[in-house]
Amino acid sequence: MSRRRKSGISKQDREMMEAGAKMAAGFWARLSWTFRLVLVGVIFALVLIAGAFYLISTQPKTENTPTAVAVQPSPSTSDEEQAGVIGREEITPVPGATDTSLGSGGSATSDWYELHFTSPEYPTNKDHYKGGLDTYLVNLMNKATKTLDVADYDFDLSNVADAMVAAKNRGVVVRMVTDTDTYTNKDASVQAAFKKLLDAKIPIVQDNRGPIMHNKFTVVDKTYVETGSWNYTLYDTYRLNNNMIIIHDPKLAENYTVEFEKMFVKKTFGPNKAKGVPNPVLTIGGVKVQNYFAAEDGVSAHIVDELNKATKSIYFLAFSFTAENIGDAVINKAKAGVTVGGVFETTGSNTQYSEYGKMSALKLPNLQVHTDGNPYVMHHKVFIIDEKTVIFGSFNFSDNADTANDENLLIVEDPNMAKAFKAEYDRVLAVALNPPTKKK
Fold it and tell me: Is the pLDDT score of 101 beyond 70?
């Protein structure tokens, strides 16, 4: 048995260390000052790189700070995680509060689409949790005869899960893509909804990564597409300001099917997906429609291009608005005399990263921005340009949505659709100007 040393270093070890130190000192003395500086610089750079990789690897999953993507620091949790927390949280009404509509949801229809908005109220009344956007989605799913593809960020609606199971039972091929954070959420309603799908042996693919799979779309029989800002949850349906649209067009459905299969079949997400879809620009019912997906299509550049075309007005509803290129495009148009009005989700709008502070500080009479009045969440992501073009979808106006997440966006040049969205803007603005209670 070897003897235990009294100290951690033996005499022989110390002598070897001293000899090594002398050798190193001699080597250093023989180096020129120029080479010494270069060597120190290389070592310093390696330390910085190692530190950067450590920080990236320990980043939480957030909407504004994606894993391995250099974007602005996040002022809070992810945009959609923020919405989920606020949405499921029970907010105690202020004393004496009476039922207040937070904007009665409207609808608009044409030969090729039906558009719907939520009708949240404060305080929330669960007896009124019926006849919401989920009804339109369930009716659409019930039409499926061949295929039903669902890509949804947040999910807990039991009736939507039931409709998916019913489709599977009548022979429809049903598939789902979701975000890992949602799939592993321990909330009882989330787990119950997923259990119904798993019990029916409906295949579910998760993104398994830091940035989020933030889509919320459904494709039925490769003919119908449902999309918008609305997640398939109870509180997205009855507490949040949201929009959803159902479009009947096989070419548009082809785009969404291709995007779905990039995730479901190829297991690729974010910037790793192959670029493009078959029909990025198409005509539906005589209307020009553009369709882009993140992170592969450079979505924010397409938004900026449309904003730069504005000659009269820009109105927007923004759950998260931190993308400087989009904000600068809006500000430049305001400085050029275009009328600009916007409502920001209150939570996060007071941070240095939000475009709210930059816009409000300009004090331009034709640039009027406000924070919203829904005590829960104002969840829209919408631009209305010259009251004839609408930009909407799952895409928050952030760098992370553009470069890291999975998102979808529609740009529709239709005055009738723009009129419906402008009416929704006016409803949300009215609540912002006269909120039922001060939002924290």
Answer: no
- Percent of the chain whose pLDDT exceeds 90: 72
Residue 33 lies in a domain: no
Return the higher-pLDDT residue of 260 and 106: 260
| C-beta of residue 227 within 8 angstroms of C-beta of residue 217 | yes
Residue 402 has pLDDT above 70, yes or no: yes
Domain count of the fold of the chain: 1
Which is catalytic among the residues 179, 207, 249, 386?
A: 386
Q: Identify whether the C-beta of residue 408 lies closer than 8 Å to the C-beta of residue 227.
A: yes
Q: How far apart are CA 103 and CA 2, in angstroms?
A: 81
- Among 422, 181, 413, residue whose Cα is nearest residue 285: 413
Per-residue confidence (pLDDT) for residue 125, from 0 to 100: 87
The answer to whether residue 223 sits within a structural domain is yes
Question: Of 381, 402, 414, 439, which is the active-site residue?
Answer: 381
CATH code, domain with 268: 3.30.870.10
The residue ranking higher by pLDDT, 3 or 111, is 111
Helices vs. strands in the chain: H and E counts, helices first: 14, 18
Nearest to 320 by CA among 371, 384, 373, 376: 371
- Which range (76-90, 101-115, 211-225, 258-272) has the least confidence? 76-90
204 has pLDDT over 90:
yes
- Long-range Cβ contact pairs of 128-133 (< 8 A, separation 24 or more): 128/238, 129/234, 129/237, 129/238, 132/237, 132/238, 133/230, 133/237, 133/242, 133/244
Residue 386 bears catalytic tag = yes
* Coil/strand/helix, residue 285: coil
Q: Which of these, 308, 375, 344, lies nearest to 93 by C-alpha position?
A: 375
Catalytic hit among 116, 248, 379, 439: 379
Q: Quick check: is 30 in a domain?
A: no
Q: What is the rounded average pLDDT of the residues 112-137? A: 94
Burial of 184 per CB tally in 10 Å (0-12, 13-18, 19+): exposed
What do you get for the CA distance between the two ends of the chain, in Å?
68
pLDDT number for residue 437: 83
Q: How many Å apart are CA 350 and CA 361, to the nearest integer?
A: 12
For the residues 187-215, what does the mean pLDDT come to?
A: 98
Kind of pairing, strands 389-393 and 381-385?
antiparallel
CA-to-CA separations, 94 to 301, 434, 437, in angstroms, rounded: 43, 15, 7
Q: Could you tell me which of 72, 62, 59 has the C-alpha nearest to residue 351?
A: 72
Backbone angles phi and psi of 251, in degrees to 5: -70, -40
Residue 151 to residue 214: CA distance in whole angstroms = 8
Q: Which domain holds residue 214?
A: 101-433
